[in-house]
Amino acid sequence: MNEILCSTGALLGRPNNRDYRHLKELFGQLVCDGLELMVYDSWYPEAEEMMRTLAGFDLPIPVVHCQKSLSEQLSGGIVRLINGEYIYYEMTTDEDEKNFERAILEFKLNLDIASCVGADRMVLHLWNGLISDRNIRRNVERFGRLKEMAEKKGILLMVENVICNTHDPMYDMRLVYEAYPDVSFVFDTKMAEFHGQTALLFEEEWRWMLTGGHIRHFHINDYGGGLKDWGNLRVLPIGKGHVDFASFFSKLKDYDYSGDYTVEATAFGADLGQRVALNGDAEGGGALLAAAPQDGPSSDCLH
Question: What is the C-alpha to C-alpha distance for residues 37 and 114, in angstroms, rounded to an integer?
Answer without folding.
Answer: 8
